[in-house]
Amino acid sequence: MSAEKQTATQYIQHHLTFNQTAGGFHLDTFWIALILGFLFVGVFALVARKATSGVPGKLQNFVELIVEMVDSQIKDAFHAKSKVIGPLSLTIFCWVFLMNAMDFLPVDLLPTIAQAIGHYGFGMDPHHVYLRVVPTADVNQTFALSLSVMLLIIGFSISAKGPVGYIKELFTAPFHAESLPMIIVLLPVNFIFQLLELIAKPISLSLRLFGNMYAGELIFILIALLPWWVNWVLGTPWAIFHILVVTLQAFVFMMLTIVYLSLAVEDH
Questions:
Q1: Residues 235-255: tens digit of each pLDDT
Q2: For residue 1, is it within any domain?
């Protein structure tokens, strides 16, 4: 539905409604994130196959620039050795950036296409065809990413310290004691603090990314409600500013992941 045929409230509600199954699974978030993931892998695989040591093309230059940036950040923040941290950091930055960048598409573009396909292809009522195109504006997606980071933190810790060393650290840090009675007293305190720290990391990662992208999506929707000439006047500078937000949020998510994994492999 176009903004002219709806009230402002209906327009906003329609754009903020997910295309979901009866069980509440967000199909639009899943498929758009999956397609963008394959796009990232496909482009980087194509560049890797056609990479040349001679004069590189523009696409190879661009990809090499991203790889060098990520590698530089890893060298500064991650002080252990790992074959996983490089590809992982590169994947996080590029995938999160692509998901964030869906916010640059005109607000009504993909939802209108989806409504047309649903109506003419499947006989659906356009009013009941929903599509949200920014996966990172869905807290389920950002929390899933952050939960994966939490599992990696645990995995890196166990890999670096061994199962026994990791369990020992859960009960002996951050507060240390020399006497046995104090050690026993501090066991539950240390465990609670370690558990809170572990849980706080994915929650903060998730909500930071979700909050910024949801706010950006909502502002674009509100701008779309304005007359076309005001839309362009306000939409263009906001889109330019949003480029910084989109890139920064992908960078911050990657950097915090690197820092958390670096802390996970260090002895405390």
A1: 889 889 999 999 999 999 999
A2: no
